Description:
alpha+beta, 7 helices, single chain, 18 strands
Amino acid sequence: MSKRKIFLLAANAVLLCVCIVQFIVKAQSHVKVFSIKGDIDCIEITKSDGSFSIVKNDDKWIAGEKQYPANSNTVKTMLDAVSSINALDRVASTSGASGIEKYELTDAQKITVTAKRKDKILRTVIIGKNASAGTQCYAVFDKSNDIYLVSGNLRSVFSKTVSEIREMAVIKENAEDVESVEAVLSSGKNVKLTRESQIEGFTQEQVVQTLENYSSLSATKWYDSKINLGGELIASVKINLKDKAITLDVYKIPAADENSTDVYYADCSESPYTFEFAGYAGQRFEILSKIK
């Protein structure tokens, strides 16, 4: 290959790189960032079926009128989503009905998110429909009439109900902090599980693992108060930790037929609400009757 051809190819490569850089810079110059400086202590979510708030209370977040503890990871996702939003392009205006309907910003379809700090509104985002790209949607900011295509699936983040935002962990302790478990079984028998206990068919390592399993328990369904759902009391349990004790009354509603499963539920000193929990977690309470 001649030197002249090599020079031309090199020049074309440089020119291509320059064009790519200019394209990227030009594309980025159209991006408008809607950001919030400082901490948010309240997020209000309004949909066609009503509204609720998620509020920071000391170092924890609570959701809804009944002030349920909120899941910290879910709240963090919401805070991150509303704190900085990239508007990729202005696509229409809300001054005409056609834009509102086209981008699903009607009262029946939109989701309105208001971020506050000490009752001061920091940002209002009205979220419309998702774009064809699943990670984009349409939104209006504050009192503007401009409809933007924005990055991020804001509808998915903020379409959640209070029940979906609630913290599902009822007991969340360190496994090594569980010292023993005491229980009064339905038969009236008193049992105690320690690291030295013997359980029929269990190795000593399995006994220790069983004891440490009592360090955590998550709800699969919450009720709005402490209620009696029926069924049979398996045991009244006391979990002794290094610095406190947790008590539970654990119940089982037997499966109605071969096509259904047992339902486990409990009342716990860690929560004012009755909750259901998974069947595999229910087995750890059934095991108590096998302690020798």
